[in-house]
Write a structure and sequence with these properties.
The protein is of the alpha/beta class and 305 residues long. The chain contains ten helices and 14 strands. The strands form three sheets. The chain has a six-stranded mixed beta sheet with strand order 6-7-8-3-9-10, sandwiched between helices. The protein has a four-stranded antiparallel beta sheet with strand order 2-1-4-5. The chain has a four-stranded antiparallel beta sheet with strand order 12-13-11-14, covered by helices on one side.
């Protein structure tokens, strides 16, 4: 079976405007996303993530390359490729005079879903808006509007769901509800593509991750392999009294204003024992020790700095 998304040589160049030179937003991107995965698409602002998502959604025309969605080439089968994907955008683009029920019905009609096959009540229940089904969208809170965006992305039962910064500016309750629904949809077989600036979320949710920077894919691997690619660790030592320490080779020391000593080191070059020995050799007594493994933020910064 073909992958959920197959991108080859994808390039997007925006024409020059207002005395600005042409901008190459995507530079011959190759990317494959397997079926059934929760896939993270990460990168700093301006990296090309939104351009890539808009091309997948059919909202932006590519300059070159091929895009296949659920096995359908966008150029050969545009309607089938569009029907295979649902996008929850970052912007709250809702008609304030439609009710949630009305919004879902109109969206389903735009995708050609027959009335007898529409899942409006089921989707309203999934996103927790059954009790607001007939309230005008303008009366909904920001969190409720974001839930409605998720519902609109699901009306045509797509095989792939794209979530563009879904938890930006939402409260903890909504965030937890969203992730429960995402896991449920994924367990039912839906492929999820997630963009987020909350790297802890990506680390917890995603099976695989691609990091885009300056229009290029800098890394693409399983989350576990990306985390394992850095052998960097951090050790924080709280001394009983202040003192001077010469860190061992392969380690750096940053003394915090509260007196705590933060050692950053690579396990391939030095060890925790060597750091502790260096502290003791300086005549400093240790009150407490904490260690931290490299996380996705470290990988992200390493690849995009």
């Amino acid at each position: 079976m073909p992958p959920a998304i197959e991108i080859s040589g994808l390039t997007k160049t925006y024409a020059a405007s207002n005395r600005q030179p042409p901008k190459e937003a995507l530079k011959s991107v190759d990317l494959t996303i397997p079926r059934g995965a929760i896939f993270g698409l990460l990168g700093p602002n301006g990296a090309g993530k939104s351009t890539l998502i808009n091309i997948l959604a059919g909202l932006v025309n590519k300059t070159a390359g091929t895009v296949k969605i659920w096995g359908f080439d966008q150029d050969v089968n545009p309607r089938q490729s569009r029907a295979s994907i649902g996008v929850m955008p970052q912007e709250l683009n809702l008609d304030p005079f439609f009710t949630p029920r009305g919004s879902l019905e109109v969206q389903a009609g735009l995708y050609g879903v027959p009335k007898g096959e529409r899942r409006t009540d089921e989707i309203l229940d999934l996103i927790g808006l059954s009790d607001k089904a007939d309230a005008y969208a303008r009366s909904l809170s920001g969190g409720m509007r974001r839930r409605l965006l998720l519902g609109k992305a699901l009306v045509h039962s797509p095989q792939i769901l794209v979530l563009d910064e879904p938890t930006a500016g939402v409260d903890i309750e909504l965030r937890n509800m969203l992730w429960r629904n995402v896991r449920r949809l994924n367990e039912e077989g839906m492929t999820i593509i997630l963009t987020t600036h909350y790297l802890e979320e990506a680390e917890q949710m995603c099976d695989e991750i691609a990091i885009i920077h300056q229009g290029e894919v800098r890394a693409r691997d399983t989350t576990a392999n990306l985390l394992g690619s850095l052998d960097k660790k951090t050790m924080v030592i709280l001394p009983k009294e202040p003192g001077n320490v010469t860190p061992p080779e392969g380690a750096t020391l940053d003394t915090r204003p509260d007196g705590q000593m933060e050692f950053t080191y690579r396990t391939s070059q030095t060890s925790a024992d060597a750091i502790l020995d260096a502290v003791r050799a300086s005549g400093i007594s240790i009150r407490d020790v904490k260690t931290r493994e490299a996380d996705l933020e470290d990988v992200f910064l390493e690849l995009t700095r």
